[in-house]
Amino acid sequence: MLNKAFSLIYVFLLIVLTIVFSLRISNITIDSSILSLLPTETQSKVSKTTIDTYTKRLDRQVVFLIKDNGDGVKACAFFNKELKKNKSVENVIGAVDKRAQQNFNQFLYNYKTALISEKAKARMENSSYEKWVLSTLYSGFSGVTEKEIISDPLLLTRDVATFLSKDVKLNVKNGYLSVTDEHNNLWYFLNVRTKSAGFDINSSKEFCSYVDNLIAKTESLYKGTTILKRGTVFYSDYASALAQKDLTVLGSITIIGVFALIFFVFRTVIPVALTVLSVSTGILVGFSFLCIFFDTINLVIIGMSLSVVGVVCDYTIYYMTLRVSKDCSGSPIDTIKQMIKPLLFAVGTDVVAYLIIVLSPVTPLKQLSVFCMAAITFSCLTVILIEPYLCAHVKKKDFPLKSVFNGYLKLVASKKVNLAIIVLIVLTTAFGLSKFSVNDDPASFQNLPAVLKIQDDEIAKITNQKASAKYLIIEANSEDKLLHINESLQQLLELMVKNKDISSYRAIPLVSLKTQEHNFSLIQKTLKSLKDPVLTENKENLVKLYSYQQLSLDKFIQSPLGNAYEPLYIKGSDNSPYALSILLYDVKDRTKLESEISHLTANAYYLDRKDDFIKVFSHYRVLISYVLYTFLIVIFLVSVLRLGVLKGLVAAVFSLISVLFALATILLSGYQLNLFSELALILVLGIGVNYTIFFNSNTNIKSTSLVAIVTALLTTLLTMGVLVLSSVSAISGFALALSSGILCSFVLSTILPELLKDVENNNFGSV
Hints:
By secondary structure, the protein is an alpha+beta fold.
């Protein structure tokens, strides 16, 4: 295997894979939505494209409330005007002039027969409508004018207006949408839609800075004005600012630390260059294989896959330690021959574990498996087939702190010390596991900024736009069929409101064309049954006043009334269906709601973004736990092949202890088990088994092996363990689990040779 022909073939293969990657990458779709990782909804026929469109619309929404301090409309007008100048803003809804109000009222009047409420229909059906009209006419508080009686004796326009204003706190004041809070303060309401939901770090920072500066400028110009803001983009900007800070500070620590460590141990930059080579090769080949086998790659899975870097960088360190050590003689080829067996065992353990995962029916897990198998295999092959030819002139040297390493080896040679260490680890693990808890809520993975959270809650409270809003997304191949489903769902939701399964909902107030025709026939029947002379004074004109005006969904959306509902609608085309969404508030039982909806239609999808995020993290945490179990089984089987059943069992138990110790550490530190910490546990297994295999394969040069493992350990701690200092709890928890786990793996791997001797000699009684 170790000759130039194989190395040349390997280089040729790498070139081919690079070309394949270059040709395929432009045709690969990168999916950045974490919701796409959700298990497929088999009951719903709603397309993924429609669901993604609505979720992106939610991310494009930004809301501002501007408090009227007596001169607030000027502040609002200034803010509105300046906001529209920003290149990221597509539209600002809030200003309503007199002409717009007149057009709104005219539209209600023209299409009153198509928009009548269910209460009006019920009165018409039980012949009590005339009584209601008369009681309204003669009420001293109704405010009905003579002009209204003449133009609309059935008061249908009034009925429609009353129905549409139900549960709506927004009114028009001083030419702007406004709302009054519980202290009778007036707030002007601006709803902004940005041009894109996918802000990159720079454009997000630019938009948020513009908004913050504009708020400060407005509040400075108009004393006493208060402006509240709400939107996903503000949270994203906060998160990216934290990430950049972590990257700058922690990245600097990592780079400086790794270079200093490598130079301190090897006193040459060649090992660093070779490590970069093997890791880069692994990542390139991993992406190449993903491009070969998949057309769509999830960005979240890519991030998870890159965690394998912590495993593959150790291969070069092991090789270079032996190559530099004076204890090891021979050529670079001789050194790699000495290392092939432990390297292949380590790589084989990892690859077999991921090979089993590739059988999973879950596509994202297959992607994770394929990437990791390719990266691990080709990183190792790079070390075996390429690196011996690149380090021929590396000089032999003594490693620093040799007395420290020898002192440690002497310490762990003591059986009593070994036993004390094992007992301490087991007791700590048991105590930590007693505090076991799981948390799949991604909102808890990072501390939200208090200022934004307070403003968010305040806006929700003032506008009655509850944070508990969920969505029903419905889809159909025609406008009228969509309206029919929308109508049926609203009837179901009315029953659920009565049963207190939900508190309220908001949907487009338009019924199907068939129902519009039925409503018009009810109006005609009511007109014929009118008896009061006040209402029948102009009977010959009643037919003209209440002529049939059919209202399509598209015409409704383009109307002054429909503009407010436009975000709920997706217009279909030849290749895509029509879609509507319904807002739901305070859903008590999601399972019951979904069951009721599924009995009514298969063309509806329940969207609860927070709950869906939790489902994603919970689902993949469980799947990753199976990966963990698989890895442990593979480690046991490989250990049995190498060491025999009894020794193999001891080695596998040590791997399990390392994982459990890492889990116990994060639990004792106040963290809970989540997807990220489970990924760290897999890395603990992958890195830990490498320590065990390498150290136990070179018992004749323990001091050199220890240098290699300690260098690999410190490199991992500097590249990933330093993330313990991250301000993002998910990242710091991941780093803590990894750091504590590999430290435990390191200690146990150095204890294992002495313990295996005792197992071989059946010499436990002397401990």
